[in-house]
Write a structure and sequence with these properties.
49 residues, DUF6529, mainly alpha
């Protein structure tokens, strides 16, 4: 899978468009919320193990 993504990225030129997560005012708040969710999920996984 990673080799396929690498080959695709090597062959294609970037479009220059940023991907925005719906509902967030910018990339930094989106990263903060998604990181918080990922940490909470990881914490739940650890506590249930």
């Amino acid at each position: 899978m990673s080799l396929g993504i690498r080959l695709y990225a090597h062959v294609h030129t970037p479009a220059g468009l940023a991907v925005n997560v719906a509902g967030f005012s910018g990339p930094l708040p989106a990263k903060a919320w998604l990181t918080t969710i990922a940490i909470k999920v990881a914490d739940g996984q650890i506590s249930l193990a």
